[in-house]
Structure formats: structure tokens, C-alpha cells
Amino acid sequence: MDALRLQNVVKRFGDFTAVEDLSFSVAAGEVFGFLGGNGAGKTTSLRMVLDILRPDAGTIAVLGRAPGRGNSALLGFLPEERGLYRSMTAIDTIVYFGRLKGMAAADARAEGKVLLERFGLAAFAKTSVDKLSKGMAQKVQLATAVVNKPQLLLLDEPFSGLDPVNQGLLEDEIVRAAKGGAAVVFSTHVMQHAERLCDRLLLLARGRKLFEGTQDAARATLPVEIHLAAQRSPEGLPGVIDAQLRGSDGAWQEWTVRLQPGHDPGDLLEYCTAQGVTLRRFEQRRASLHEVFLHIVGGEAR
Amino acid sequence: MLQHIMLVAAREFRQIAMTRSFWFTLLILPAAFGFGPVFSRFLDKSDTETVMLVDQSGGTVGAALRQRIQLDEQRAALDALARYVRRHDLQKAAPDALWAQPERWYSDADVARFTAEGGVEGARRAIARVSREDAEGFKAPEAGYRVVEPPASVVRAAPGAIDKALEPLLHPGEKSQARPIDYVVLIPRDFGASPAVRLWANGVPRGAFVAKLQTVLTQELRTRYLTANGLPPQAAVAASAIGPAIQVTTPPEGSGRERVFIRSILPLACAYILMMSLVLSGSWMLQGTVEERSNKLLETVLACVSPNELMYGKLVGTVGVGLSMIVTWAACGAFAAYATHGAIAELIRPALAPVSSIGSVAAILYFFTAGYVMVSMLFLVIGAMSDSMRDAQGYLTPVILVIMMPFTLLVQAVLRGAGGVGVEVLTWIPLYTPFTVLARLGSGIPTWEVLGSGVTLAAFIVLEVWLLGRVFRASLLAGGGKRSLGQIAALMRRADA
After folding, report:
1. Residues B186, B130 share a domain
2. Which of B7, B300, B309 lies at the smallest CB-CB distance from A79?
3. Is the Cβ–Cβ distance between B323 and B16 less than 8 Å?
4. In angstroms, rounded to a whole number, what is the distance separating the alpha carbons of residues B103 and B106?
5. CA angle at residue B195 from B191 to B201, to 5 degrees?
6. CATH number, domain at A120?
7. Which of B8, B115, B254, B330 lies 20 to 30 Å (CA to CA) from residue B34?
8. Do residue B77 and residue B192 come from a single domain?
9. Predicted confidence band at B272 (pLDDT cuts at 50, 70, 90)?
């Protein structure tokens, strides 16, 4: 059973279509990147999963059930815009949200203490939120999201506003949750995090899905770039779109070669070896997710 | 659902209960009652006015005025004593005493007899034989006037110089510690031949004082006139003193106009307390809701609880805060009644009469709670539509004005015992129903009106929660600044909100 499944989901606000015919699924233990620029429809989609908004069409299954607060015991959610009750203490805040998710007060308190210890905030358990630094408050909010050990963890732009130390802590928590069997869905427009964490990703623009798959599959949408040193031009070799001469060192010429999307660089190497094309260097340059994003989303971004 | 509502309500309650303003408000009423009498002892300014009698005509007129003032003071004391004796059922202490007889208007002869029998102290001694506590409990009313002797410089002053001589007495300098004299009465040497007398007052003179002065001086002038026209002096004095013997019939204590006043005290207090606690706890809840919006908390909360659960939880929490304030104040009142050995309970017993039936208590509880839900819902929606307290004030000020404005008129109308079309109309306007019905419970309101307005109010609350609930839900995560009335009305019509 998928932890999360959306099928042909549509959400409109008046004449404006925020999400259009969106379908995807996330399996248990998977880290799923929900990527898109500002206004792509990421937050609207997550709000529909949480039943804060209702879709105009399509179906959503959360852990095999319809969206609703009945699922809150199994869900964790960290919104993009974060805030806490300023007069509540750190531990009381965690206990409150734990109880809203159906936990017993004692269990929520015990788990809250464990989390605060892990986040280095044990000494601040009884400090009110308004006396915590911004970074500390963000860790408390993360604790409220995971206190119930959710099976589906939804993180909306979780890295925004975090310093590098807290970004690392959050990445550790995401990995920890996935290893524990939870499905993790996080939206972001910062590709470095997605690159480090995601098993699969979905690219969204103007409410429409442009891509869903693994990082390799995403990269495969871009022409593969190879840097090679040969004694003759690689133009005309199988799969080569074009080749640019970068320089020469005696008889050896430095070339940048672009392969057709989906063409395996290994096939080219094998061909060169078989045909006696002498190579002194053969390096594949791996496209970054940022480049993939620009390539796929490009002009679609709002 | 219920668990979520109660969790939200408990958090709401805790948040408000943790504020200093909550505790300040909670304790200020008991503190005011507790310390009020102590402070008033220090701050209370005596109402006794000073009178200086300057009699240049020989002294008899001044003596007559002094006697009149003293007689009237004794009459007031006798009257207060008689009422006290009836209230405490002490007639058996001295059945023949004037103060033990049915209420009446005491003549000068009666007052003279009362004074001759020892006045208040004599009565106290008699009462002490029956109840020492009651004897010590009576406090004679404060004297209205205190006669002070004029200084020699004033007595000897020539007619043209007397104003100057009185100036420092009537208007002592700012640095002077002396209290100004309130009245100076000058009886000139030729009084009798001439009716002219002079009165200096340190402000607008009391009508009662001028009437007193006029009565005595008229008697004096009349006596002199009759004597001058051949009537024997004794007959002239008797003729001048002729007056009607007015027998006063009043309803028993605690009835009539007084009854309306006493019986309305508690219901009016309920209406007032409802108003005050509503405005206060509603404001606290509003602050909490604005905080949730401005701190971007709502999305986290709404991931766990539905908008309706959040709305009902906040309403329950606010009603809880209000009721806890009422219970605390009532408990303080009960404690005070106990601590004062029932003296306060004795005083408020007539006030409790209109709320002594189960129906009255049920009506108070119902309209109190319904009023809370109705007004709290308004505050809640204002909070949900506001990004800051400044935004909220824009909605809040007109709402509070609309709720509070008719309240003063209502209190006055009820205390006058006047129903009137205005009060009737207010009874049936749901926004004012709780306050009006509570206020009218003392002066009498037909049962059918209580039931009818109660049902109307319940229907209004259902409609209000239904329509404003849509505004609340639609506003929770919406931005875009302050909404116009048209936009709010459009949200009420949106079925999907």
C-alpha cells in the first residue's frame, strides 16, 4: 500500500487553477521531493493531503484512507510559515500537539523530552517559546511534527530560514524517519537538499506535474555531457549531438561532447574501444538537479 | 471531536489564565469590595456643612434657627432608628418608644420627646437590653449641618464692612488649612421692622437649607406681626407654629419603588458582570486568535484539528474563562457573607428574592451562557479576520459600541421600574436579549417573554454560528488585509467555506 496517493487531483480558487490533474504516489520508507518554484502548487497540494483544503476533483489516499483529522495520529507536518504559542514552554508545546494527534499526555511528554535531548534543547524544556532563539524555536516545531513518530511526514519548505547546523539536523531527521519506515514528502525549491535526500522527485509548475521519477531519470532528460581527449573529432560518433573543441595539447584535442538524452555514455566508450578511436580521457559530467530543474521547469515557472 | 475541542478549550483557558490582566481583573472586584470601605474611611469627605449664624437683632432669631437645625437632625436620627428597629424586629425593646411605633412623620413635639428620652443613646441602651449586637450596629446618620460660632470681628462689623470681614471665612487662601464656612446667615439689627436677612453661601445653597431658613424666619416675622397687632405673645407663637399634621403611609420596607430597586440589584449586577466579563474574556480570546494568525501557527493547528473543532474549542475556553470569573466573584461574595457573620447576607436577602426560584436561576444561567456564546462568536470571527490587534480594533470598536450603548439606558429604565416600548424592543433583539432579560428579572418579566426571547436567542445563535462559522473558516488561512462588510457578507453566503 502506498503511504500517499493522489489521482487526477484538481484544485481551483475561482478562475485560478492552483493544481491541475495531479497524480503521484509515495511508498513507505521513501523520501519524495516535491519540487517547484514559487506558486507551483506545492503548498496547496500538501494542504489537500492534510484536509485543510478539499480538492475540486480527483482522489487522495493517505495511508489508504481519505484525508481527514482522523489521520493526524499517523501524520507529521511542518508548514512553510512557522510559529508557536509564544507563552507556552517548549515541552508543553510538544505535549499539546502530541495530544492533538491522539497521544496520551505522559507518552507525548516522554517522547518530547527524548526529542529535546536529541536536538540539544533538554535544558530549555521549561523555557517559554518567546525566550528561545529562532533556531531553537524551529527545532521545537520540528519536534511537534515528529513527536508521534508519523508514518507520513509532510514538510513544506522545511529548510527555509534554517542555518547550516539546523539544516543538517533536519536532514538527519528526514533520513531517520525514512529508515524507520515513514514516507517523507518535502517540498522545496532548493535543489541541493533534494539532491542529497530524495529517492524520487516530482517537478511541478503552474499546478501541473512536469516530471516524476528518480534523480537519474530526471538527469536523463538532459543531454549527457562528456569531456574527452582524442586525436580526432568525435563528431559523427553514435549518439553524439555535437562536439566542441576546447583546446589541444600536441596531437591530443580536448572536446566537450553532448549526447542525445537517454543515450548511455558507456555505449559510446565501448564503440570507441571497438573501433580503435584512441582516447586519453573520457569523463562524464553529471548534470546537477538545479540544471535539470531549469531544463524541465524553465519557462513554466510563474 | 470532543477531545480536540476540550484540548483547544483547555489551552485557550490556560493561555488566558497565565496573563497578568486576567488575574488583575479576577481579583480587582473582590479587592474593591474588601478594601473599598477601608479606603473610603480615609478618602471620605464629610457631607456636613458648616453654618455660621450672626444674629445682630438680639439673639432670639439665631437661637430659633439653631434649634430648628438640631430638631431636624434629631428627626433624621429618629427616622433612621425607627427603620433599623423594624428591619431587625426590635420593637419589643421598648414598645412605647416613638422609634418602636409604625412608620410616621415625626412632629417637632415627637422629636422633642425623643430627645428628652435620651435620643439615640437612650434608644441604644433600651435596645441593648434585647440585643447588644444590634444596639452597637445602629449608626446614626451623619449630621447635615454644624453650627459654628462667629468671630467677634464679624459680630461687631458694621453693615458696610461685613462682606470684607466674612471674606477670609468663606474663601480662605490656598495656603490656609482652614475649611471654608458653607453658609453665613446675618440677621440684621432691624430684623422685624425689615424682613431683610442676608445669606452667604460657598456655592449654590441647598434648597433644603434655604427652606429651613425661610420657615424659621417666616415664623419669627409672623409672630412679631401678630404681637404688634394685639395678639398675646403666646397666642402669636402658637398661631405661627400652626401647620398640618401629615400622616405618612408608605409601603412596607423593601416594597414599592424600593422593592423594584432592591430586587433589581442582583439581576442588574448579573447583566453588568456579563457585559464586563464578556468584553474582557472576549478580548483575551481575540488576542489569542490574532496571535495564532500573526505567528503563522494556524496551519500547524489545522493539520490536527478541524476549523470547527478549533472554533468550538475557543468558544468553550472563553465561556470557561468567563464562568470561572463569575464563580470566583460569587465565591468571594459568599465568603464575605460568611466572614461577616451573615451581616451582608442579611442585607442582600431582599435582593436574592427574584432569583430564589429554580426557574429564575435557570434563566440566569441560560441567558448568561447564551450571551457569552453569542458575543464570543463575534470576537472570534474578528480575531480570525485580523492579522494584528490594530486590524482587530477596526472591527472591535464599533461592535463594542453597538453592544454597550443601549446598556446605560436599559439600567436606568429598569431602575425606574419603567418597562416601556424601548425595553420591550431590546428584549427581542438577540444582541441585547441576554442583558435585557437578566436586567428585567428583578422588576418582573412575563414568563412567556423569557421563554420566547430565549428561543429566539437560541435560534439566532445557531444562525450566527452557522454564518459566522463560514467567515471564520474562510478567514483562517486567508490573507489580503481588512475585509469590507460586503466581502464578509459574501463569505457568509459561501456554502463551501
Report:
1. yes
2. B300
3. no
4. 9
5. 90
6. 3.40.50.300
7. B254
8. yes
9. confident
Same domain, A257 and A214: no
Nearest to A100 among B18, B295, B304 (CB): B304
Cross-chain residue pair B295–A85, CB shorter than 8 Å: yes
Q: What does pLDDT average to over chain B?
A: 81
pLDDT digits (tens, 9 = 90+) for B199-231: 998 888 888 889 888 988 898 888 888 888 888
Q: Does B414 fall in a domain?
A: yes
B309 reaches A (C-beta below 8 A): yes
Give the pLDDT of residue B287: 82
> A78: which chain B residues are within 8 Å (Cβ-Cβ)?
300
Number of domains present in the structure of chain B: 2
Torsion on CA atoms A108, A111, A117, A119, rounded to nearest 10? -90
Q: Please report, for the domain that includes residue A262, its CATH number.
A: 3.30.70.260
Residue of A nearest to B303 (CA): A50
Residues of A in contact with B296 (CB under 8 A): 79, 81-83
A293 in a structural domain: no
Residue-range definition of the domain harbouring residue A240: 223-286
Query: How many domains does chain A contain in total?
Result: 2
Element (H, E) at B345: helix B343-352
Residues B212, B108: Cα–Cα separation, whole Å: 14
Q: What is the pLDDT of residue B319?
A: 85
Q: How many CB atoms lie within 10 A of CB A34?
A: 26
User: What three-state secondary structure class fits B357?
Assistant: coil
Please check whether residue B327 touches A, CB under 8 A: no
**Calpha distance A119→A142 (Å, rounded):** 10
Reading the block at residue B390, the C-alpha cell is 490594530
Q: Is B38 exposed, middle or buried (0-12, 13-18, 19+ CB in 10 A)?
A: exposed
The pLDDT assigned to B256 comes to 54
Band (pLDDT 50/70/90 cuts) for residue B276 is confident
Report the distance separating Cα B30 and Cα B210, nearest Å: 42
Q: Is residue A120 domain-shared with residue A21, that is, in the same domain?
A: yes
Whether chain B has a CB inside 8 Å of the CB on A77: the answer is: yes
Q: What's the per-residue H, E or C state across B377-439?
A: HHHHHHHHHCCCHHHHHHHHHHHHHHHHHHHHHHHHHHHCCCCHHHHHHHHHCCCCHHHHHHH
**CB proximity under 8 Å: B 449-488 to A:** 477
Q: Do A201 and A108 have their domain in common?
A: yes
Listed residue (A174, A162, A210, A166) closest to A23, CA to CA: A210
* Residue B454 grid coordinates: 430565549
Same domain as A79, residue A108: yes
Q: Which residues have C-beta within 8 Å of that of residue A87, sequence separation ≥ 6?
A: A128, A129, A130, B15, B18
- The 8-class DSSP code of residue A231 comes to S
Q: How far apart are CA B252 and CA B258, in angstroms?
A: 9
pLDDT digits (tens, 9 = 90+) for A234-276: 888 888 888 899 898 888 999 999 888 778 888 989 998 898 8
Asked if residue B497 lies in contact with residue B474, where contact means CB atoms within 8 angstroms, the answer is yes
Q: Which residue range forms the structural domain that includes residue B281?
A: 2-31+257-493
